[in-house]
Amino acid sequence: MSQTCQIFLQPLAGAMAAVHPKELILAKGFGSAKRQREFLVARSAARLGIAEMGFLPLPVGKGPKGEPLWPPGVVASLAHDEGWAGCLIAKRGSGLVALGLDFEPLNREVSKGVYQTIYSPAEAQQLEALGDWALRAGFCAKEAIFKCLYPLFGAYLGFLDAQLVFLDHQTFVAKLSQPSGAPEIPAQVTGQLWRQEDRIFAALGL
Q1: Binding-site residues for CoA
Q2: Which of 76, 95, 114 is where one domain is finished?
Q3: pLDDT for 85-118, tens place per residue?
Q4: Region for 154 from its dihedrals, namely left if φ exceeds 0, alpha if ψ lies in -120 to 50, beta otherwise
Q5: Mean pLDDT throughout 124-139?
Q6: Annotated binding residues, as ranges?
Q7: What residues are designated binding site for Mg(2+)?
Q8: Are residues 66 and 114 in the same domain?
Q9: Do 9 and 41 lie in a common domain?
Q10: CATH at residue 57
Q11: Is the pLDDT of residue 2 over 70?
Q12: Is 126 left (phi over 0), alpha (psi -120 to 50) or beta?
């Protein structure tokens, strides 16, 4: 991402750097210990980022649809997979009003049936020609799009509402369908992709 953003990662195993008591209360709303852990570690990574950016490490709340509620002055997005949780963060006023982040292990096994729910036939053909990494990258790209758009527009998009028209090792471009009854969203967005160790990352800023 640009120099206005920073990413903070923490392993799901091991000690968490910082947990706020209010976040512990929110975590109890999840049924499984695994989901509670993911929730708390992601917010622990966020707290590190918030402090690093010069803000007080206030709790990251949870909105009615599960979306993170950020302290004033913070623009950010959370993500996690089986091993890590992370936060992409920027200062409000940096030129960004919303961020979306997602990442996945490159070696994760995903069935073809799952991909059929994520991609149109044209998308699947395009990505399969690039290799398995592109199928995982495309999933991350769509997740990053949804995470970025929902807090800004309150618009829920299905996977097929974001059609990838370009993807390489550094960039993705997607055309978006206008959700019914939602504020007008961008017709097209461009985000970034990168590899870090054994994971593929996708990020979008608006």
Answers
A1: 35, 43, 102, 143, 147, 157
A2: 95
A3: 999 999 988 889 999 999 999 988 888 888 999 9
A4: left
A5: 95
A6: 35, 43, 102, 104, 143, 147, 157
A7: 102, 104
A8: no
A9: yes
A10: 3.90.470.20
A11: no
A12: alpha
